[in-house]
Each structure stands twice: as structure tokens, then as C-alpha cells.
From TrEMBL:
Top-rank lineage group of the source organism: Bacteria
A Pfam cross-reference name: Amidase
Protein name: Amidase
Residue ranges occupied by any Amidase domain in the UniProt entry: 25-442
Organism encoding this protein: Sporolactobacillus kofuensis
SUPFAM superfamilies assigned to the protein according to its UniProt record, in alphabetical order: Amidase signature (AS) enzymes
Length: 469
């Protein structure tokens, strides 16, 4: 039955619908797998054995009665432990919230439950989502399943590892500077940061109100699309004419699409091997009719500096009262970040927001020539666990990858696996779209993915998982 852990959601859904497998059966098997693999990987803060099996039993009963809610019905899904879960502890990866039991579910959690998904557990994260390594001082570091000495990225590292290691069929993450895309890239899965506010954030512990996004993480583009269909705000879909159906995503044509390449910043500081892998992916995209053009975007450095100011200021504002009372309950790297945020003046914050608006206009102008922008998702080999000091952590996301600009813009960004380094570490590329172009982004990712079966590669070549099958 091991192959089932790496099946895509649609195949599992069909098997559940036909009765050839039950939700209780796959949930029990998945829980066994988690308890076997997770002591080394540490992807989960909380494995929800009891409630997951209750949800699975309910899902099976509904399937027998013909009441099938959709493709996620009966499918084990993980959620980052930053989303409120009614009656169950939500830590946000912190000591501060280690006993907090919310009175309600986050909107996205309610939507998953309404769709019949089985919430199998809550995944580890960088404390309060304030970092890109998922080295958590309170719940331990999450480790990359491709190499246990390496970080998985963050802050949604637990979600990425749970998906990549076959310990759930999909997961939710949050993305404030790349926290869905970076760990997805470093762990060899697909991750989508939707357009800002396309997914309702109520019930998600905030990091930065200006930049926070919620999105799906899965092993395939189709699986990301299926999860996104469930969690999106339906009013936003109607208002912007998005068609996220699998049928539409599979049939969009790409012959007239132009993708911009901004070599400044996006390809600066990139390791040679990663650049070669991403360039090969570009050649592959050209083979399906996509055109590439060089573009320039003025003001990138100024925009990124403004982003740092806004993000750390908003983080401090949210945590101010608790941090002043219990500063030592926060991890050292988070203390450093919050202390830095406390020094931001109101005038600096306002100026940073002005710079952000100006930068957005620069990007709009540059994207008159193209439909999308492509870049590496991460640009260097992931750090070793414990390599970076707390004082260095505030810049880790900017050092590891090219993701923060997507949040500065609020535009949708998809990352997909595009190869593996000589050390068998995954490499990802990201495609930035214009607002509300998720269906087209997913379509490009799907057509690329069809030529490169990275899921099969993962299952066959990951040494850690092979040892523990």
C-alpha cells in the first residue's frame, strides 16, 4: 500500500468514491506512516489521531449514502499550526500560545472541513512564521527529507515536509515573504501563493497584514488547484472571472504567452548549477510555445528595503503587548526581529508604503511587455540545520531565494519542481502572474509538469524515504 502515499488527490478521491478503499483505511495507514517517519523529520507539532479517525469515519458514512462533497472528501490534509482550530491547541509555533484553544476554526479550516477533508495534523513552522528555516526553539527543527542535515525552508517547512514525505496528500501554508514557495522549492513540491486576499485570512495568526497570504502545497499542480478551489473566497472568484476547474487548467493554450526574464536581482547570486537547471526548464517551456523576453524593473532594492521595514513593523505591532510582558518566552531570533521592528518610526513606515506603491507601478509598466515573470525560487543550496545565528535570521529569506517580491506585489506566484542538483536536492522555479491569473499560472505549471514526473523521481530516489518504507 506504500504507493498510495504518493498518489494524487484525484486518484485517491476516485478510489474512495468507488469503495475500493475507505477514508478510515487510508487515514490509519497515514497515521502509522507519520508516527514512523516524523520522529526524524519533525514535520508535525500535533498529530490529530482521534479527531482524524472520527472525520474519516464520518466521510465514509457519507460516501456510502452517496453524499460526496467533492474531491477532498475523505482525503487526509495537513494544516500549518498557525490556523485556528476549534477546541484544539493552535501554537503558531510559539511558547506563548502553547495552551491556546480557539473557540472557532479559521475560515480556511472550516472550508476544508465543509469539503469533507480529514484534518490529519497541524504542522511545524518557524515561530510565529517569522523565519525561513523552520528551526523552532520550542518544538524542534523540521528537517529536509532529501537530506536530514538541511533545513526544509520556512516558515511553512512542516507543511512542505509532510507533503513531500507522503505524510499527507496536501497542506495549507502561509506566505509573507516566500513561506509557501521557499519550502516547496527546497522539498521538491508544488506551492501556490494566490493573489492577495483571494483567500480569506480570518483565523490565521498574522505576521504582516500587508503581505500575508494563504495557499495550497501539494505534490502536483492539479492537487494545488483542487485545494485552492475549496479555500478561495467565492465572491473574489466571481468578481474576477477565475475558472479554477481542472478541465479549464488542462485546456488553456500557451502559444501567445510571453514570460519576462529580469536578470537583475532574480538571477543575481544564483549558484551555477541551479541557474543551469532553471535555464533548462525555460528551454522546456519554449517547447510548448512560450516566448521569453528580457525586461527591466527599476527600484528593486528600494522596494525590498521597504518590504523589510513594513513587515517587521507590523510584526512588532501585533506582538507588542505580549512581547513587552514576556520577552523571554519568544525565541532568540524572534526577539531580535521584534526588537528591530520596535525601532521603526511611523514616518519610516509611511515612506516604505509609498515606496511600495511606486514599485508596484514600475512592475505594472514592465509587465506591459509580458504576461508573467519567471525566476529561480531558491538561489542557493539550503543551509545546514543550526548554521545561521539568530541575528542573521532576519535576512535568511532574502539570502535563500527570490520570493519576497511576490508578497510586495501581492501577485499570484506558483513554484514547481524543475530539477535536482548533483547532491540530489530539489530545485524549483517560480512564475509570477498578474492579479487573478491563478488559472493560467496553474495551466503553465501543469503543462510543464506533464513532461517531468518529479513525484515518481522523489519516491524512487529519496534515500531517507527508501530506508523507511
Amino acid at each position: 500500500m506504500d504507493h498510495l502515499f504518493f498518489e494524487d488527490i484525484r486518484k485517491i478521491s476516485l478510489q474512495l468514491k468507488s469503495g475500493s478503499i475507505s477514508s478510515v483505511e487510508i487515514t490509519e495507514k497515514m497515521l502509522d506512516r507519520i508516527h514512523k517517519l516524523d520522529p526524524a523529520l519533525n514535520a508535525y507539532i500535533q498529530v490529530m489521531d482521534g479527531s482524524a479517525l472520527e472525520q474519516a469515519k464520518k466521510a465514509d458514512d457519507e460516501i456510502i449514502r452517496g453524499n460526496i462533497r467533492g474531491p477532498l472528501h475523505g482525503v487526509p490534509i495537513a494544516i500549518k499550526d498557525i490556523f485556528e482550530t476549534k477546541g484544539s491547541i493552535t501554537t503558531a509555533g510559539s511558547k506563548v500560545l502553547s495552551k491556546w484553544k480557539p473557540a472557532q476554526d479559521a475560515v480556511v479550516v472550516s472550508k476544508l472541513k465543509d469539503a469533507g477533508a480529514v484534518i490529519i495534523g497541524k504542522t511545524n513552522l518557524h515561530e510565529f512564521a517569522m523565519g525561513s528555516t523552520t528551526e523552532n526553539p520550542h518544538y524542534g527543527p523540521t528537517r529536509n527529507p532529501w537530506n536530514l542535515t538541511k533545513i526544509p525552508g520556512g516558515s511553512s517547512g512542516g507543511s512542505a515536509v509532510a507533503v513531500a514525505a507522503g505524510m499527507c496528500y496536501g497542506a495549507l501554508g502561509t506566505d509573507t515573504g516566500g513561506s509557501i514557495r521557499l519550502p516547496s522549492s527546497l522539498c521538491g513540491i508544488v506551492g501556490l501563493k494566490p493573489t492577495f486576499n483571494l483567500v480569506n485570512r480570518k483565523g490565521c495568526v498574522p505576521l504582516s497584514w500587508s503581505f500575508d497570504h494563504i495557499g495550497p502545497m501539494a505534490r502536483t499542480v492539479d492537487d494545488c488547484a483542487l485545494i485552492l478551489q475549496v479555500i478561495v473566497d467565492p465572491k473574489m472568484i466571481q468578481n474576477h472571472g477565475l475558472d479554477l476547474s481542472i478541465e479549464n487548467i488542462h485546456t488553456i493554450k500557451h502559444r501567445s504567452i510571453k514570460i519576462g526574464i529580469c536578470k537583475e536581482y532574480f538571477f543575481d547570486g544564483i549558484e551555477e548549477e541551479i541557474q543551469m537547471i532553471v535555464e533548462q526548464a525555460m528551454y522546456d517551456l519554449e517547447a510548448i510555445g512560450i516566448q521569453f523576453i528580457d525586461i527591466k524593473i527599476p527600484g528593486i532594492a528600494e522596494g525590498l528595503n521597504a518590504q523589510k521595514i513594513i513587515s517587521k513593523s507590523e510584526a512588532y505591532t501585533f506582538h507588542k503587548n505580549t512581547f513587552e510582558k514576556y520577552p523571554n518566552d519568544f525565541g532568540k531570533d524572534v526577539q531580535f526581529r521584534l526588537n528591530s521592528g520596535s525601532k521603526v518610526l511611523a514616518s519610516e513606515y509611511i515612506e516604505a508604503q509609498r515606496v511600495r506603491r511606486s514599485f508596484l507601478e514600475n512592475v505594472k509598466e514592465a509587465m506591459k511587455e509580458c504576461d508573467y515573470i519567471l525566476s529561480p525560487t531558491h538561489s542557493i543550496t539550503p543551509f545546514d540545520v543550526g548554521e545561521r545565528s539568530p541575528e542573521e535570521s532576519i535576512n535568511n529569506i532574502f539570502d535563500l531565494g527570490k520570493t519576497p517580491i511576490g508578497n510586495l506585489l501581492g501577485y499570484p506566484v506558483l513554484t514547481v519542481p524543475c530539477g535536482f542538483s548533483s547532491k540530489k536536492l530539489p530545485v524549483g522555479m517560480q512564475i509570477i502572474g498578474k492579479p487573478y491569473s491563478e488559472d493560467q499560472l496553474l495551466s503553465i505549471g501543469k503543462h510543464y509538469e506533464e513532461e517531468h514526473h518529479w513525484t515518481e523521481y522523489f519516491e524512487q530516489n529519496n534515500a531517507y524515504l527508501k530506508m523507511n518504507q
